[in-house]
Amino acid sequence: MKDPVIISVGGGKGGVGKSTVTANVGATLSKKGFSVGFIDADLGGANLHICVGVKRPAVGLQDYISGRCKRINEIAIPTIVPNSWLISGASDILELANPNYAQKQKIINNLKTMSADYILVDLGAGSDYHVTDFYSAFPNGIIVTDGLPTSIENAYSYLKNGTIRGLARLFSGNQEIQKTIKCFIDPDTRKAFATIGELYDYMVRKFPEDASVMKEWLYNRRTFLILNMVKSGDDVKVGTRFAELVKKYLSITLHYIGYIIYSPEIRATIKQMHPIVLDQEPSKVIECFDAVTDNLLAITRGRS
Length: 304
Ligand SMILES: Nc1ncnc2c1ncn2[C@@H]1O[C@H](COP(=O)(O)OP(=O)(O)O)[C@@H](O)[C@H]1O
Ligand SMILES: [Mg+2]
What we know:
Layout: E1 5-10, H1 18-31, E2 36-41, H2 48-51, H3 61-65, E3 77-78, E4 84-87, H4 101-111, E5 118-123, H5 129-137, E6 140-145, H6 149-170, H7 175-185, H8 196-206, H9 208-219, E7 222-230, H10 233-250, E8 254-261, H11 264-271, H12 284-300
Parallel strand pairs: 1-5, 1-6, 2-4, 2-5, 6-7, 7-8
Antiparallel strand pairs: 3-4
Helix pairs in contact: 1-12, 5-6, 6-7, 8-9
Bound molecules: adenosine-5'-diphosphate (ADP) and magnesium ion.
């Protein structure tokens, strides 16, 4: 059996449509014949279950973290999306909103033992390490944003912090490199680097072997951009400009895999608790999800 392709879905800002996109991209993958796993890692505000038609999840991540369920596949439950399962993050237990690193690692390490062609990990808002640990743990990540400058700024911070967090973990045993990476976060330091490219050039001079490890880590990552709630052609262009910015400052190739139009029907389907792409009636928004998913498949098929 092939390892699942695990993809985080984040973006920094709340309300930009991360969970909606997770549910609908997942349902589109299912329509195209792939099996899908949904993970709700928005532990403070879990609601992905509603987007995939599950009213009250009987089990979830809390049962696994607490050890009540020993194996991760015991907490996967069926959804209304054919050929899919969900691991819910819904919980009344407050401390689970911010799991520690070991708890996150337990989830991250064991996800690949789950059976699915694709696993989509829906993240919460923000770009602190509770969220970016999930971004940096998986080589594939979807960024969802709308075209507003505030959302774009949050998406940028999310990517920046996620990259730094990933690099810091990669070199967790090396104090010198940790200090170097810190210079990128803190622009007041004398040795500040303006871009990940500058940080890399410095690493090549000071720690050449580690620089190749850094290069390989960056190279193996696939980051996808979906612009949501698009109302005009100008909105679409925001995605192209954002991808250029991210390339310049963060050395990340952001694959702009498409946009989803603003659709009042999406709000209605949330109330009916099902992904809009499962509707029989053809519509423009379903076409958008179809195009985005085809682009995602073109880049990820054959990779794990
Ligand atoms: N393309 C869209 N058009 C219209 N409304 C949308 C669209 N995408 C998401 N929404 C609505 O926006 C709200 C927030 O979406 P949600 O997926 O919960 O965001 P997030 O997970 O990023 O917090 C929901 O009410 C959802 O129905
Ligand atoms: Mg959400």
